[in-house]
Please model this.
Amino acid sequence: MHELTITQNILDIVLKEAKAARANKVTRINLVIGELSGVVGDCVQFYFEFLKKGSAAEEATVNFTLVPAELRCRHCLASFNPRDSIWVCPDCGSASLEVVSGRDCYVESIEVEQ
Ligand SMILES: [Zn+2]
Model:
């Protein structure tokens, strides 16, 4: 259900943008999915095939760009990519970390035909 809601939101955004650009048809949707967003690209693709029917995005393909998780240590300011679910700074061992990137899922751009 998680991805169904997200996919519906993505499609809403895409159709709104297409309308604002006075486009008749959306040909491509470029999506960014962060490793920590919890969004599974395959699921989005799956739901998109159903949701797009009858819309201006019916013939659109979805392109996924996966953004890896990046964390920063608040203690020594080292940046690193977590390898597993245990988040500890590899340099100083601190567990006080902040997420720099990889948390978001959003529509980066769309391509349309007038
Ligand atoms: Zn550190």
Q: What stands out?
A: Helices lie at 2-20, 41-51. Residues 33 and 105 are 4 Å apart (CA to CA). The mean pLDDT is 95.
